[in-house]
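Sample A.
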Amino acid sequence: MTVRTVGVEEEFLLVDPATGRPRAVGQAVLAVSAADGPDDDLTAELHREQVETGTKPCHTLHELGAELRSTRATAAGAAADVGVALAPLATSPLAVEPTLSPSSRYEEMARRFGRTVSEELTCGCHVHVAIDSAEEGVAVLDRIRPWLAPLIALSANSPFWLGEDSGYASFRSQVWQRWPSAGPYGPFGSAGAYRTFVDSVLGTATVLDEGMLYLDARLSRQHPTVEVRVADVCREPDDAVLIAALTRALVQTAVDGWQAGDEPDPVRTEVLRLAAWQAGRSGMDGDLLDPSGWRPAPATDVVRRLVEHVRPALEEAGDLDTVHDLIATVLARGTGARRQREVRERTGTLAAVVRDASHPAP
């Protein structure tokens, strides 16, 4: 079997090294990066207080880990040249009024969606896994739906919002649901049905374009990939490697099931929304909904069932031992959300939370 390539896009905050507050310097960071040479891996985002990186397609988890560290280092270096730090936090712990990046598209989004845009300073981790065709990709979309919520729990890295503890491990996942085209989706059945769905969404004139199809997973418009979009940006690059490894294994498991004639789980979209909410609420520190019966179970048990679900794909890719090690690390030290709360408890300040996560460290 040829192992599918996997790539990761990460969004980051640009913060003041002293105060921890986001700074609207995204364009300056991009200019510094461009002056050092063309770099398609560092791009603008919706707000000037953030930038996005992207890895190359990778065959191995070792290669992906090196790519993630390299892209983070490049972005952090450009940020440091403008006097700010790069913060892998999925929401800003400190209150902020984001500044729109210069773009006619973003300006139209702001006009159409109001406060949803003006408050949407969130940072996600998007995983791209190679597919052979749109038909195969839609078969994947239909079959990975039950297992996306545990990826939210494993990546949870956004407990604070507007200067307060939100009560959620991933409040980014809550804020993201404000978009009318975001969240869990129903099964499509075929590439033709998926295209009909996309055309129907565009026909409503609610969203601007296909780029605003913010489903938890979708067919990429620019690459021959399935793009899974549920995870928070991870504080640790190894956690992003874990999310990517599990995502690739989910894709391969879904293709294997499709080719074997297995039907997708018919779970209703409304139940998936409940599963996603629960994952964002408690992260790895409480119960998740177990796809085997959609009843609460300890998060650690649900993640172990996820690994068992994709075990053959992990073994074929040579990823099983690495995934076991990475999960053990997350369970031992906790998610980014737990780390943020521990720093807040120890120091009493949210600025310290941001500094603790920033690259380079102040």
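Sample B, a different protein:
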Amino acid sequence: MANLSSHVTALFIVVALVCAFVPAFSVEEAEAKTLWDTCLVKITPKCALNVIAVVFGNGTLIESCCHDLVQEGKVCHDNLIKYIADRPSLVGRETQYLKKRDDVWSHCVSISKTA
């Protein structure tokens, strides 16, 4: 039961982080919903938070999350990170975030091939 509670809490945190970057009356709202519905269901909330922390902060990648990320797929990973990086508060460093996104993807693919 505690495990389910921690998953629900982590999912709530992911949704809250995403909402913080999404304007309330966004034209892209339908696009965002599609991304979340098709992509975020393929990765655990813990790993989604970890990838976001690595790309947008100074987080350390949890290697066990690489499997989830590769399973999510490159298109989903690219689109989700790009969507977040396009937020007005982050767009000034978008190039840096997109490079980190690509570095995380390459690292995870190399780990997945050796596993």
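Observation for Sample B: The mean pLDDT is 80.
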